[in-house]
Amino acid sequence: MSADAETTFDVVILGGGSGGYACAFRAAELGLRVALVEKGKLGGTCLHVGCIPTKALLHAAEVADTAREGERFGVKSTFESVDMSGVNAYKDGVIARLYKGLQGLAKAHQIEVQGKAEAGANEDQKSDERNSNDTHEQDLRRSWCDATRVRRPIL
Fold first, then answer.
1. What is the pLDDT of residue 115?
2. Sheet holding 11-14, edge to edge
3. Can you tell me the distance from the alpha carbon of 95 to that of 69, in angstroms, rounded to the nearest whole number?
4. What pLDDT does residue 77 have?
5. Mean pLDDT by 10-residue block, N- to C-terminus, for the chain (155 residues)?
6. Within a domain: 112
7. What DSSP state is assigned to residue 137?
8. pLDDT in the model for residue 60
9. CATH number at residue 135
């Protein structure tokens, strides 16, 4: 969005985690023009470093336990070892699939997602942003205050 452009939204949602994107999708379904501001990636902490990665790792551990205890269920199986690079690849694949789905849903709902990570920053830039959160938040706040007008406040 250019600094000169003014865009009007019915609602601006701060935070693209599970609560934020659910709110954004529902508001869009109700016919509101929605902007979602996320300093990281759509999906937030839960999707990218919290709940979902943890559940993927736990699932891999459960599969290993099931393989080890197969005879208890009448299944002859052996457990050799855990390939952590394979487990991490599985976890990353789960995250990537869910993230891609969220991006598609946001696009389908015509939700404008704003934030430096969403605007296509590379990994080095994202790392720098995490190290200078205060500057990033000030820049994001300034750009939205300059370029965005909310049609009516919703409390």
1. 83
2. 11-14, 34-37, 112-114
3. 28
4. 86
5. 66 93 95 93 95 97 92 89 96 98 97 72 49 51 45 50
6. yes
7. H
8. 96
9. 3.50.50.60
**Inside any domain, residue 2:** no
Q: Is residue 143 part of a domain?
A: yes
Beta partners for residue 113, in sequence order: 36
Is 99:42 a contact under the CB 8 Å cutoff? yes
> Is residue 155 in a domain?
no
- Spatial neighbors of 36 by CB under 8 A, at least 6 apart, are 12, 13, 15, 16, 20, 21, 24, 42, 106, 111, 112, 113, 114
Q: Which pair of tokens denotes residue 112? A: 């404008």
Question: Domain range holding 144?
Answer: 7-150
Global pTM reads 0.71
Q: How many domains does the chain have?
A: 1
> Two tokens at 42?
């759509």
In 3-state terms the chain splits into helix, strand, coil percentages (rounded to 5) of 55, 10, 30
User: How far are the Cα atoms of 89, 91, 126 from residue 60, in angstroms, in the given order?
Assistant: 11, 9, 29
Q: What span, in angstroms and rounded, lies between the C-alpha atoms of 89 and 95?
A: 10
**Residues 6+ away with beta carbon under 8 Å from 91:** 53, 56, 57, 60
